[in-house]
Design goal:
Elements (H helix, E strand, L loop, with lengths): L3 E3 L3 H4 L25 E5 L2 E5 L17 H29 L12 H4 L2 H34 L2 H6 L6 H33 L7 H32 L4 H22 L7 E3 L4 H13 L6 E4 L10 E4 L6 E5 L7 H16 L2 H31 L10 H38 L2 H15 L7 H7 L5 H14 L6
Parallel strand pairs: 5-7
Antiparallel strand pairs: 1-6, 2-3, 4-5, 6-7
Helix pairs in contact: 2-11, 4-6, 4-12, 6-7, 7-8, 8-11, 9-10, 10-12, 10-13, 11-12, 12-15, 13-15
């Protein structure tokens, strides 16, 4: 849920945790319910009969339930709100995304990379594509089971305790099942990264990182679903406070993620005193970007990949470089940080968080609109039924998959603008091209991604595209073309 802007796209560059579906899914999946019209739950040791909303004149909490026309009216209201919010999201994304950055010529990998480098990139892409697509396929299949069958309800129907306990346990159980199915694919992908020298983790460290990532995902998801079910138990038009809550939770998570969650995975130290630190801080001051410090992440304990990123906003904004990047020539490091300063200056993390928060609110309203149909297929009594956790998680997974290509399209344009900022700030296209070549070769970037992979996974322009833009900038600004 945190918005973060990276120098290099992990799906193209192999960041040790490549952002393909084979390793780390964006959103965990969930489960449906067990096909019964009414069921008996145990809450605090008391057997409670749960009814479908609108059945027998009252809902699961004993409140007067809406009749059929009332339910239809509520869904129409939510549908209108959904359309209006969708238009707001399109407008915000449209006005904050730089759709035309700088026209450039066609990318030409053969001009800047040797035949051996191109062949290595193609071989790496071929090796990782199969586990990636298998993982994507499993993701879709499992989400379908949770949304269209009683599988999830049957599994979670065995859980005991108060409703809030069963919601939390439901998140844990479904997350564990999904990960158990996908774990062999994660091992396969990690083995490929090791074979190509991108990962240097041992299996204990790899397992620890993966479990911590799952723990963070499960924790955030449990908080969200607890709030959702609590609201649905209290308020008929629960989509209104749920949308507000989803917006606030997304913003809050993005704000605290750099200082609360990122330290779980890396140790961060202040860049040591020296010419590089001095030049970076001076460049930030010249750029008009307030940066008190540049942090170094100990990425070398798990990967050989090069990267830098900016995360957080306001008081938690930070620019981070991998310690592996510090082995590059100083001018190239400065150019990488100039790219990150572009993200900071244009408030890309803040605007990305805003769009993400609006998207989360949109999802909460959409859940109200579509859950009636899903409930009938999965057999849960209502969204207040703790067994509905699985169906909600499945819907979230589908939503994430559907929005992924649009998010990548926006991200590629934002990354191109940050590249342009780096060129304007440094006026050094030759170093920019050298840096892009170093990143591409070290991270084994896909130099000629096919259209499907580009749409599904590429959050950054390809390295040849970025190099072509640098040459266009050089021509436009009367600088020797690299």
């Amino acid at each position: 849920m945190s918005e973060r802007r990276d120098t290099d796209d992990a799906s193209q560059a192999g960041d040790g945790e490549a952002a393909t579906a084979a390793d780390e899914p964006t959103v965990p999946m969930t489960h449906p319910d067990d096909g019964i019209r009414s069921g008996t739950a145990v809450e605090g040791g008391v057997r409670v009969e749960e009814r479908i909303d609108g059945q027998d004149g009252e809902d699961a909490k004993g409140r007067p339930a809406a009749d059929g026309s009332g339910e239809s009216r509520l869904r129409r209201q939510a549908g209108i709100a959904l359309v209006l919010l969708g238009l707001v999201i399109v407008a915000v994304a449209g006005f904050t995304t730089p759709w035309r950055v700088l026209a450039s010529g066609p990318p030409d990998p053969a001009r800047d990379f040797t035949a051996a480098q191109i062949a290595r990139a193609q071989a790496f892409d071929a090796a990782t594509s199969l586990p990636s697509y298998l993982s994507l396929g499993l993701t879709i299949i499992f989400a379908g089971l949770l949304v269209a069958t009683p599988f999830g309800a049957k599994v979670l129907g065995r859980l005991k305790g108060p409703w809030w306990v069963r919601v939390m346990l439901g998140v844990v159980v479904i997350t564990a099942i999904v990960e158990a199915v996908r774990w062999p694919l994660g091992i396969w992908f990690e083995t490929i990264l090791r074979d190509y020298g991108l990962s240097i983790q041992d299996w204990g460290s790899w397992t620890g990182d993966r479990l911590k990532n799952l723990g963070v995902e499960a924790f955030l998801l449990a908080v969200m679903l607890l709030a959702l079910v609590a609201l649905a138990r209290k308020v008929r038009r629960w989509w209104i406070p749920a949308a507000i809550g989803a917006f606030v939770l997304t913003v809050a998570t993005s704000f605290i993620y750099p200082v609360v969650f990122e330290p779980l995975f890396n140790d961060f130290t202040t860049m040591r005193q020296g010419p590089l630190r001095t030049n970076l801080l001076a460049m930030a001051e010249r750029d008009g970007v307030p940066v008190e410090d540049v942090l170094v992440a100990d990425a070398s304990r798990r990967t050989t990949a090069l990267n830098a990123y900016v995360s957080g906003f306001g008081a938690t904004r930070r620019i981070v470089v991998y310690d592996t990047l510090l082995k590059a020539p100083q001018q190239e490091v400065e150019l990488v940080v100039a790219h990150e300063l572009g993200h900071a200056k244009d408030n890309d993390v803040l605007y990305g968080t805003l769009v993400g928060a609006l998207g989360a609110a949109f999802g909460a309203i959409a859940l109200f609109v579509v859950f009636g149909a899903v409930r009938r297929r999965t057999g849960v009594t209502s969204i207040t039924d703790p067994r509905a956790v699985g169906a909600v998680m499945g819907l979230m997974t589908f939503g994430s998959l559907l929005l992924g290509p649009a998010q990548n399209l926006i991200s590629r344009n934002i990354e191109a603008r940050a590249d342009l900022h780096a060129l304007d700030l440094t006026r050094d296209p030759a170093t920019f091209v050298a840096m892009q070549k170093r990143l591409a070769v070290t991270n084994i970037s896909d130099l000629s991604p096919d259209e499907v992979e580009y749409v599904l996974y590429a959050s950054h322009p390809s390295s040849p595209e970025r190099i072509a833009m640098a040459r266009s900038w050089a021509k436009l600004n009367g600088v020797p073309e690299p």
